[in-house]
Amino acid sequence: MADPLLQAEIDIAAPPEKVWELVSDLRLMPKWSPQCRLMKVFGPLRAGAKTVNVNRRGLMFWPTTSQITEFIPGEKLAFRVNENNTVWSYELEPTATGTRLVESRHAENGVKPISTVLVNAVMGGVPSFERELVQGMNDSLARIKAAAEGR
User: Fold this and answer.
1) Could you tell me which residues come within 8 angstroms of residue 97 by beta carbon, excluding any fewer than 6 positions away?
2) Name one Pfam family in it (predicted).
């Protein structure tokens, strides 16, 4: 069974406006995420907007679609992946030295059964895949931090 919450966070020595600029440009998602190869938003970025995505793991590629569920400029961006029912989010919080950025994958209502079957069959099982997702979150946040801090 999928963990209902996977999460990683990082403190960035840059103002929230700079971090938001990077996080909310979903065309940059492949630059941050080790798994995402494409994220295309249709129409303006807002709650309700739809996306088409392409993910990669080794030699395996798979498409997904999603819908923006929350869009609070400068604070939060979240989207639901239609194929597995998970919600991915980025939340920004101002700190004394810049911004705390939290990336989460929520599965409070569970993951669709077909997704679990496929992860177990071709991705080494849910626990292993979820560990990989958390590592990917940490890698993504480190890349965003480096870009925001100008490194």
Assistant:
1) 11, 13
2) Polyketide_cyc2
